[in-house]
Amino acid sequence: MSREVPRSWVAGLVLVSIGMWSGLFGPIQVLLAEQAQALAPGHKEAALSLVTGVGAAVSTVLNPIWGAFSDRTTLSRGRRLPWVLGGAAGGVVAMLLLSGAGSILEMTLAWALAQAALNAMLAAITATVPDQVPAGERGGVGGALAVAQTLGVVAGTGIAAAAGSTTAGYLALAGVLVVTTTPYALNPRDRAVGREERPPLALRDFWVSPRRHPDFAWAWITRFLMNLGNALLILYLLYYLKDAVGLSDDEADGTVFALTAAYGLCTVVTAFVSGYWSDRAGRRQVFVIWSGLITAAALLLFALAPTLGPTRPAVWVGAVVLGIGFGAYTAVDFALVTQVLPTADDRARDLGVINIATALPQVLAPVLAAGVLGLGLGYTGLYLLAALVSVLGSVLVVRIRSVV
């Protein structure tokens, strides 16, 4: 890193990101599914779809709003830090409420609060990169944040799987949020914004015209499609292992963590390598295209070969290939997106709009999954659909003209 981007600051940014992603994916990967099965055993898929769908809808709406408020925050400690700290506090409260939820309604409301709070953190954290990092270094920092996301997913899943109960899992994730947020809070390098610098805000400001900013629109579309393919896999992985692969409940819990760890290890390596490689090459599109095609190949393995045995380890191979593809994609796509933002004054708002492309698939994935599974196409049909949208998301990146 250059002197403008100290390693200590990047380390703090990575750590707080790990905590945030743990809080999101520990529940998504394990705890929400287990809780839905316990509270509504005869309708577990529908209950899980309701809870995750409402939560994702909340994040879709609030992420750009939190971003816009962050752009206009004029506190002396800076404009991003208050939203990181407030989001972490709200996330802790949400985990406590989830730990004691006794009905699907309570679970849905608590998860909606968790999504609202953690997306406040996400909006502020992502905006600090274009605030503080030169464009030529964003691939490397994007790689570091991709690693943080992966480590957060692995850590959250591991904590949830090893906790022994949903209550203990949620309490442990609340503790992780506190521990990982503290170092960043002590060294945020956040810049205060004067009231005279604060841009006005109206409802129309949340609309970014695709006609005026076509590259931004295409970046949004490609991210949406890639994340939709990923969401179709992740949200139903636990049930896929039970219903398609044939594992018992205990076996499925442990296997979710093991697959996530294998995926995570590959993601860490490829995110770092791809991020720095794209910085040095001065190119982004070719990395996005190949990463999307590799991701689709992994989804095909999940669709066509639901086997885990030592002689037919297709699902394990799929997890490794998925980590290679999605790790490269996450690092380079983040750098690409920061180079097509419409304005400097509204970075957090614009990144919030981009983050809708990450959150909205979590709303649509349960709907699509319910339709595919309801038609009797099974997980083969579901993951073939995921592979198709991933291919489409990767190739459409060529429509972006301002970034090669």
TrEMBL record:
Major facilitator superfamily (MFS) profile domain residues: 215-404
Major subcellular location class: membrane
Membrane topology annotation: Multi-pass membrane protein
Key words, A-Z: Membrane, Transmembrane, Transmembrane helix
Residue intervals passing through the bilayer: 9-28, 48-69, 81-102, 108-129, 141-162, 168-186, 220-241, 256-277, 286-308, 314-341, 353-375, 381-400
Pfam family for this entry, one: MFS_1
Record's protein name: MFS transporter
Lineage of the organism: Bacteria, Bacillati, Actinomycetota, Actinomycetes, Kineosporiales
